[in-house]
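Long-time lurker. I teach an intro course on protein structure, and each term I like to show students one example going from raw sequence to a predicted 3D structure in token notation. This year I'd like something fresh instead of my usual example. Would anyone be willing to generate the tokens for the chain below so I can use it in lecture? Attribution to the forum is fine with me.
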Amino acid sequence: MFGFTTISIDAKGRLAVPAKYRNQLYAQNEESIVVTRDPQYPALKVYPGSIWKSISTELQSLQGLDPIVRNLQWTILGNASESSFDPKSRMLILLPSELREYAEIQKEQKVSFIGMGNKFEVWNDKNWEMRQTGGALSTEILEVVLPESLKTISF
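-- Reply from a regular --
Happy to contribute to a lecture. Here you go:
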């Protein structure tokens, strides 16, 4: 699941998964999606249920006494929002207001929906364009040294 699409958030704060991804999610028998904060950028991560299960299990098993690990657990697990959907429908995903605020996304606004292989990212269009042209975002976190325990997890 790769590629970039511009889509709109509806008046209820939902987005419809683009058709090119719905077919793949349907073929993989996915029935849920989890949305959470990107730990590095003002964007959202969107995981199919089966991928989320693997990532959340790995994150939960890490030593929470390490402050960097604990911060990532808070950011990713503590902000997760799961949505179930009918795999034959439009696959509407609710973006809770706290997550929309974090990613600077407004209702009834266009966003960038990026396929990243086994997951997706949702970006405010202006922030995505800024990142693509090499511009820095005031809220990005780039200088984190990850503990070895986190280096094998594909966020």
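Some talking points for your students: The chain has a mean pLDDT of 86. The CA atoms of residues 113 and 122 lie 5 Å apart.
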